[in-house]
């Protein structure tokens, strides 16, 4: 699409929407992000969610204020956008044409994307949020805190100074989800 940015890395996403330069940030914050991937079923919604969570972390003390009040995911993705019945949006596509992400011409790029996600480890989460692990074929759901590395590009003022070996999931705090009635937000394990 004309003017679209190809962003699949959460670090690049944060650097794009929250640049260090205040002038660039003011320009970017006036825009309304619209996320999509081929079908808007996985990557687009995950990146939209990551932007929202990152915005919430940055504005934790100013709740409910957000820099990006409106974030959209294109229903049906690029596939539905390009293949409308009356072809009214094709002039907004650059180049004019539709190539599936599974096309053999782009197999190397797709492999790079998958390799990047496997190396990332934390996925699209900032490390500040709980990650739900759902076991296949069971009704069991566990939630773990994912400790954040201080040298992480997404590290914030909430990141722990302790090494990850010393952080135990049962005592790790998650600032955005902590219980405000307890002084530390930690669960009482007694």
UniProtKB/TrEMBL annotation:
GO biological process: cell division; G2/M transition of mitotic cell cycle; positive regulation of G2/M transition of mitotic cell cycle; positive regulation of G2/MI transition of meiotic cell cycle
Sorted UniProt keywords: Cell cycle, Cell division, Hydrolase, Protein phosphatase
EC number annotated for this UniProt entry: 3.1.3.48
Region (Disordered): 145-190
Biased composition (Basic and acidic residues): 159-169
Any GO molecular function: protein tyrosine phosphatase activity
Domain Rhodanese as annotated: residue spans: 3-90
Catalytic activity as recorded in UniProt: O-phospho-L-tyrosyl-[protein] + H2O = L-tyrosyl-[protein] + phosphate
Record field: compositional bias (Polar residues): 145-158, 181-190
Assigned GO CC terms: cytoplasm; nucleus
Family statement: Belongs to the MPI phosphatase family.
Protein's recorded name: protein-tyrosine-phosphatase
């Amino acid at each position: 699409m004309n003017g679209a940015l190809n962003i699949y890395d959460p670090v690049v996403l944060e650097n794009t929407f929250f640049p260090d330069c205040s002038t660039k940030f003011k320009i970017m914050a006036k825009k309304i992000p619209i996320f999509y991937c081929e079908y808007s079923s996985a990557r687009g919604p995950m990146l939209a969610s990551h932007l929202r969570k990152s915005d919430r972390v940055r504005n934790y003390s100013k709740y409910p204020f957000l820099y990006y009040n409106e974030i959209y995911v294109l229903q049906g993705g690029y596939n539905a956008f390009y293949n409308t019945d009356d072809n009214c949006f094709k002039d907004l596509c650059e180049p004019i044409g539709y190539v599936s992400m599974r096309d053999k011409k782009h197999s190397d790029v797709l492999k790079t994307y998958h390799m990047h996600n496997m190396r990332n480890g934390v996925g699209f989460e900032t490390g500040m949020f709980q990650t739900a692990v759902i076991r296949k074929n069971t009704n069991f759901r566990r939630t773990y805190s994912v400790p954040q590395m201080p040298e992480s590009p997404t590290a914030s003022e909430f990141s722990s100074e302790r090494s990850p070996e010393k952080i135990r999931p049962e005592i790790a705090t998650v600032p955005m989800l902590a219980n405000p009635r307890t002084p530390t937000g930690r669960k009482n394990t007694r």
